[in-house]
Amino acid sequence: MRREEGEAGRKGEREKGRKGEREKGILDSAHVFCPLSLLSPFLPLALSLPPAPFSSLPPRYTATEKMDDKRYMLRHFLAALAYRTQKALRDAPEGFGDFQAGNDVRTPEELIRHMTSVLGYARTFFIGGEYRPEPLPTFRDEIERFHDMLGQLRLHLESEMPLTGLTEEQLLQGQFSDAMTHAGQLAMLRRLHGKPVRSENFIHAAISAENLTPDQPEPVAPDE
User: Fold this and answer.
1) What does the DSSP assignment read for 44-98?
2) DSSP state of 219
3) What is the tens place of the pLDDT at every residue in 109-142?
4) Can you name the CATH fold of 63-204?
5) Where are the domains of the chain?
6) CA triple 122-126-127, angle to 5 deg
7) What is the pLDDT of residues 38-90, one digit of tens each?
8) Is the pTM of this model over 0.85?
9) Which helix (H) or strand (E) holds 182?
């Protein structure tokens, strides 16, 4: 009887000890106990390892693996600029390019030329020199030149040609953001002209860095 009581007591002590170990953070896997303190010397090494590839990146990323993340994002920004500019120009009424809103506001045609000038200025930080676009005969010509400039900037971003005199962050906060602001002004002028642009959820827009042309897709999620 005493021997059975002794064995029961020892068994209870073992179970109590195991419970205490688990409460202290000891890993229990297949009845193998490994104190966390034994793993601590390896934590700095684990944290220093590079992250695993992000498998959900769009497929086109594989074609531009040499491009760093900053330039990749700038390239997509240019695509968004192309999309929003055409959003403001699509189905514009006749004579919209010459629309005068008053008080020395640029006409849509002048705005597009200015946007090309701003982006041409950005390009000089890749290739040097100066850029001052001369007026073209038609509004359509101005639009085509603007999209051509977008394409040239995209090629510079995809190449290993360095920026000289400013950083990618400055390019974004300066010339690129300036041009995007003017795309919004084009949309405002459409409303003032009497034919406003239909709103949409731009999060779902089919924007592609491979397409910087005037031929942009229709809205995927237009507002009702």
Assistant:
1) HHHHHSPPPP-TTS-GGGGGGTTS-HHHHHHHHHHHHHHHHHHHHHTTPPTTGGG
2) P
3) 999 999 999 999 999 999 999 999 999 999 999 9
4) Four Helix Bundle (Hemerythrin (Met), subunit A) (1.20.120)
5) 2-48, 63-204
6) 105
7) 444 444 444 444 443 433 334 444 445 567 999 999 999 999 999 999 999 99
8) no
9) helix 177-193
